[in-house]
Each structure stands twice: as structure tokens, then as C-alpha cells.
Amino acid sequence: MTNKDELKERILKLIRQYGEEYHGRKPFEPGDRIGCAGRVYGGEELVALADSALEFWLTAGRYTEEFERKFAGYIGAKYCAFVNSGSSANLLAFMALTSPLLGERALRRGDEIITVAAGFPTTVAPIVQFGATPVFVDITIPQYNIDVTQLEAALSPRTKAVMLAHTLGNPFNVKAVREFCRKYKLWLIEDNCDALGSEYGGRRTGIFGDLATSSFYPAHHITTGEGGAVYTSQPLLAQIIRSMRDWGRDCMCAPGQDDLCGHRFERQFGELPQGYDHKYVYSHFGYNLKATDMQAAIGVAQMAKLEGFITARKRNFALLYAALEPLQDKLILPEACPDSEPVWFGFPITCREGVSRKRIVTYLEKHNIQTRMLFAGNLLRQPCMRGVEFRAIGGLPGTEAVMNHLFWLGIYPGLEEKAIAYMAEKLSEALRLA
Ligand SMILES: Cc1ncc(COP(=O)(O)O)c(C=O)c1O
């Protein structure tokens, strides 16, 4: 072993020890903070991060390549592009569909995109930012996903795509949505940010759309700090995604790589001089949405733990469900779509008539139990919708109910059985007082 390797080994050994000693979790005691989500990590993530830091490649490199390959393999998609957030992934997925390389099928300003208003705003943001029109369909309770019986009513000659999230990890009715998209030749973007590992019809979500996205923000099923991914099995879409992620360029060489194809100075592009450097040929007006190799290194370490995380999430969901079952006269508990196996992001609860959400969440928060709304609630009521052109199918009563009566609790893998029991106990107390 060289001095360099030996030194690195010593450094990484110390870092692992530090991670285990100072980043471990202490057992839950009643009264401790119960988060709605959180990072679950250990020495392995710190070692991977330090290894990448010692290499000092910084931008997308070997860890990014490994993460993209492992992630695509896990989902069952052919291509994956690692990006700097789930919101960037949504932006990139949507903008990919505006590429001139798609010819007649490319999205244009004024096209209509079917989506829902009960969810996270950046599922809808790219539609509005591009100048397409969102068409909002209601959701059903207690699945909190699109009411597929409204799809036909949402259709118009301008409809070009459907862009939907699997709400809080619960797969939407993939069969109905895909049939609708196939029938009318619409694109489908699957926002899989909250649903990593969830299954529909025995297959992982994220492979049903033309494109799908993930988020690796700390609250998610795995984390890279900031981070996200776009994936697809269609080579042309993968090529467009790469181009738009990496400044819009035409060349597919990785950062730091030159002339992979061997024809760098030999081709004719647009009206550029013959042989103009392919590295500086732009087939799109793109972005730079790449993440760093340090983030990817953490992602690789997290991927190795994903199955364990999924088991823990499922266990926590089942424990909380069982503990809250006796309270169903006051609370509506969540329900999975038929033929699906969710890996829930959180545990959504809708208060029945006469039960005050405000009193419950105030009581829980007072007892150090974090609560969350379903993100934007009803996006149509948010200040950002001012002046935005849209269509909505009916009055969206389900979405309104979510905005007014829903909250969700954490079930992330860092929560132990005792914490789940404590949460249920406090919720039960809150109901007695509410
Ligand atoms: C459904 C959904 N889509 C997109 C995002 C955005 O991800 P990010 O926070 O990584 O930008 C989130 C964030 O939690 C989300 O819940």
C-alpha cells in the first residue's frame, strides 16, 4: 500500500468512528422531539462523503455515474440523470418535453397539462413557468390522489400531458391514468419524489411515466442533502435530459472528458463553421442542474440502506395505523389505491366533521410532535396563483377538504416503535380534549 492509500485509510477509519460515536441516535424517551421526517445515516455516509472530498473532483464524476446506474437499476428505468433537487428534476422533466427534437409532439405555450392542486407546488411550477395552462382535477379522500373519473372532463383539444405526484408515497391509479394517456397520445410525467420504492401492480413507481422524478431532500426516502433525479427508458428523452441538464449542449462527454466520440472537430451543426468544436454546440437553451459528486457519494451509501428504510417505513405505518384504528369515528385514516403497495412518505389523517384540526396539531406540537399539512393544500388558494391562467374541473371539494382538515405525521425510519406509540397516545388525548 502506498503512503497515500495508507493515509486515506487512516482518515476514513477515524471518520467512520466519529460518525458512529457522534452521529448515532439515542433511544427515544417520551417528550423527545418526534420529527415528521429526518435523515437516517451513519458512518458509511460520512466515509463516502469524505472519500469524495479527498478526491476533490467536486463536480459530477465517478460517484455520480455509480449513483445514476444504481438508481436506474433499482427503479427499472434505462437512464437516470442526477440533479440538484426534486424541483429541478420536475423542471427538467417538463422542459424536456418542450424540446424541438420531439417534433410535433413537443409541448408548446398554451398547451394544457392535467394535474392536481393538492400537493407540492413544484409539480405544477414548470407548467406555469413555461406558459402552459394547468388543468386541475380533484382528488379522492382518503387516497389523496387524482380522481380519475374526472379525467375525460378535463380533456380539451389543447391537452398534451398529465403531470402528477404519487401523493405522500401512495401510488395514484396508474392503470386508469396510463390508459387515458395512451388513448389521447398524451405525455405522462410521474412525480415520484415522495414514493421511492412504492409499487403498483407489482412494479416500482417511476417506470410508468414517459419521465419520472425523485427528490433526495432530507425528508425523503433516501437523502443526498439537496438532490434529485430524472429517469426514463426512452433514449431520445434521456438525450434531451442530459443536454438540458448540462447547459443545453449537444455533446454527451462527461465533465472533464473530451472527444469521446472521436469526431469532435469533424461535424456540421446548424450554421456554424464546419468542424466547430462539438463541446460548444448547443441543441437547446438549457440549464446547469447538475449536483456534486459529494452528494452522489452520500446517495451511493444511502442506496445500500434503502431496503432497510422501506421495511422500517412500512412497519411504522402499520404500527400507527393499528394504534389509530379505534379512533376512526373521529379521524379518516389513509388508504392505498387497489393493486398498489405504498412506501408512505408520511401518515395523512383527515379530521371528521366536528373535529378541529387546529386544536389537534396545536396539542401535538406542544408535545414535541411535528405535524405537517399536505404541502400547498389547495394550490389555487396560494398567493402564487394570483394572475395565473388555469382551468379547474368543478369546485375541487376533495382538495378543499385536504386544505381545511388534513394533517400528516411522520413514520420515517428514524422513529422507533416507542415513538409511534407515544404519537398515537398524544393524538388520542388531543381528540378527547378537542
Ligand atoms: C411531490 C414532490 N415533488 C417535488 C418536491 C421537490 O423536491 P425538492 O425539495 O428536492 O426540490 C417535493 C418536495 O418534498 C415533493 O413532495
Task: For this entry, give a set of tags.
8-stranded mixed beta sheet, binds pyridoxal-5'-phosphate, Aspartate Aminotransferase, domain 2, flat, 434 residues, Aspartate Aminotransferase, domain 1, alpha/beta
Describe the structure.
This protein has helices at residues 3-22, 43-55, 62-75, 86-96, 125-130, 151-154, 174-183, 235-245, 293-303, 306-324, 357-366, 397-405, 417-433; strands at residues 79-83, 112-116, 133-137, 159-165, 187-191, 199-200, 203-204, 211-215, 228-232, 331-332, 340-341, 347-351, 391-392, 406-409. The chain has 434 residues and is an alpha/beta fold. The protein has an eight-stranded mixed β-sheet, sandwiched between helices. A three-stranded antiparallel β-sheet has the order 7-6-11, with no helix packed on it. A three-stranded antiparallel β-sheet has the order 10-12-14. A hairpin with a 2-residue loop joins strand 6 (199-200) and strand 7 (203-204). Helix 11 (357-366) packs across helix 13. The structure holds pyridoxal-5'-phosphate. The site of pyridoxal-5'-phosphate (PLP) has 15 residues, from helix 4.
